[in-house]
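user:
I keep going back and forth on a fold encoding question. Separate attempts, laid side by side, tell us more than any discussion would. Would you put together a sequence-and-structure record for a protein of your own picking? Write it directly below this note and I will take it from there.

assistant:
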Amino acid sequence: MLTRILTQGPIPRVEIARRTGLSQAAVTKAVAPLIEAGFVTDQPATPAEAESQLGIGRPVSPLTVIRNSISVIGLKVTPTALIGVTTDFTAGIRTVRHRPLDDPTPATVIEQLAELAKELIAAADTTTGPLIGIGVAVSGDVDGKHGVVRHSPLMGWRDVAVADLMARHVKVPVVVTNDVRALTVAEHWFGVGVDADSFAVVTIGSGIGCGLYINGEVVSGAYGVSGELGHLPLAPGDLVCTCGRRGCVETVASSDAILSRTRETTGKPDLDLAGAIKLAHEGDAHAREAFDRAGEVIGSALAAMVNLVGPELVVIAGEGVADYDLYEERMRQAFQAHAFGAAGKGRLMLRSHTFDDWARGAAATVIRSYVKGEPPLQR
């Protein structure tokens, strides 16, 4: 009941009854403890709504979540920076903090994450509800159940018990999750996925990731791994990925791969990514080739994904979408060439995301765990 009000509210009791198949009396009974606990309230009807309801019985007062009834901290880890946000119950961002990161070793990162969390806690104002948990989003193979980052090639981490290490510094429940899955949870509960039957979030940047929402759930995979689009073997086999394998999509399509290719073909070893993008926009054939090659592989990977799971919507996000125009045409051509039958009719939507949004995703994961009563956040 709380999930429905949180993700679809404000919503009248009669509409909840219609969508759930329960009676209005059953809905009222189920909602009563949520109101008593201070999570939910009746939203007063606007003057226009009240006037329209005159003479038709008891006015309809939609149920809505009290945003400031709880607060959550979301933390996003990258090799060069830590990003932290505080959100309300609807994942609305209240406070943002960024910290540069010079040393990505686990001990240093955990210590600075804890300091960042304490800074966000100290910055909370009097209108902020009690802190229910801290979410930490990291790229790679993450065991969310035990709070362990099993392997993050971008961070150079293996078997880092993030939740246990954070518990030594902060006395708040910690949820650790794959960063793309966290972004997908945020879109499912508070974004484009609220009204979608199925969707995928594909992120393009330092890595290539994919989160899936299918059959009413964000897909986690039996072993905590799913949607690893960046590690499909669709690139030339002589290219070695950061994960140690050959031919992964990321060896051609990540921002680092595009830069490396442009440096190699232009003979400019000191070129940075901004310079490569500038060259491509100016029509430099070598720089354009690097982006075209990336678009070709990304399009093929998207086609493989929709052929397998058939989402109605694919959201393309991540820091790499700022350069989307450089590979969009080739990507769409490859997608249409390889998508089978009606799978190619799925919509591709561009959605700009900042690192603040990734941190918000970590907070959304905490909210989801809390509402569903999952450990360590049982209500």
Notes: Residues 224 and 318 are 22 Å apart (CA to CA).
